[in-house]
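Something for you to look into today, if you have time. Could you write out one complete protein record for me, on any chain you like? Leave the record below and I will have a look.
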Amino acid sequence: MSTHSTSGNTTLDEVTGEPLGGANASTVPAAEHEGSGPLPPRRRRAGSVPRTRLTVALLGLVLPVLLLLVWHLLSTNGFYSPVQLPQPSAVLGAGWELLRSGDLWVHVGISTQRVVVGFMLGSALGLAVGALVGLSPWARILAGPTVGALRAVPSLAWVPLLLLWIGIGENSKVTLVAIGAFFPVYTTVSAALQHVDGQIVEAARSFGIRGVRLFTTVQLPAVLPAVISGLRLALAQAWLFLVAAELLGSSMGLGFLLTDSQNNGRTDRLLLAIVLLAVLGKLTDALIGVFERWTQHRWGSAPAT
């Protein structure tokens, strides 16, 4: 037995009088809005992520401030001794001491130089080899397993070999940083290029685009998000491998500052070096963000929000 009736173009339930679901039910809200003007602007949902840069930056400072407060409390209430955990003011004092002597800029400058040079060399080589392995089945078969095995070698395992082959100078340190930057870029680029839409590639080839031009104008822009992610990981790896390079056979740099502070019992300088590594890592990662926005503008894609 039917439990509904029809009134005009709307199907109504005989008991409740409400419109039933279905194709005709969707005409009710549409009719209510006809001729009523534009709808009011949608409000931001509760709990949604803020989008203004200032708000995001201020919220990003919340956790560092909380960590700083916890650090201050643990270092002043007797939970840790000053040797184990100096107060934040003591770390700032150690930084001011190194700044006045001029040693701070030397350590920061030489470490940054090593990271930048090694990162550029390693990421460029990783992009080239990753493109070769990702686009060529023969290169994937021949070189893929070997590169994947070398990727599992720890950073400290390369140090004595590089010191033996290259020596104790700058070249060995930059080479180790380049090794650290190579593998993330290689991995992300080679994996991403294997999943590029073949129809896009064939369409470009039908217009006569081939070889290096095909890679730079079609295939590379298609995997750009993966490339940026690989560069971010490579930069983090570069800083990690830098510390490993400067722990042995170095007389300056933040890695040397870590070792020298540990040997001399200067925990304040040791924590200063850790904080500087974190700050420099974040600043260089911000430069990758600038490069990401430039590439988005270059290839006409909208920036991520």
About this structure: The radius of gyration is 29 Å. The first strand starts at residue 4 and ends at 7. The CA atoms of residues 295 and 301 lie 8 Å apart.
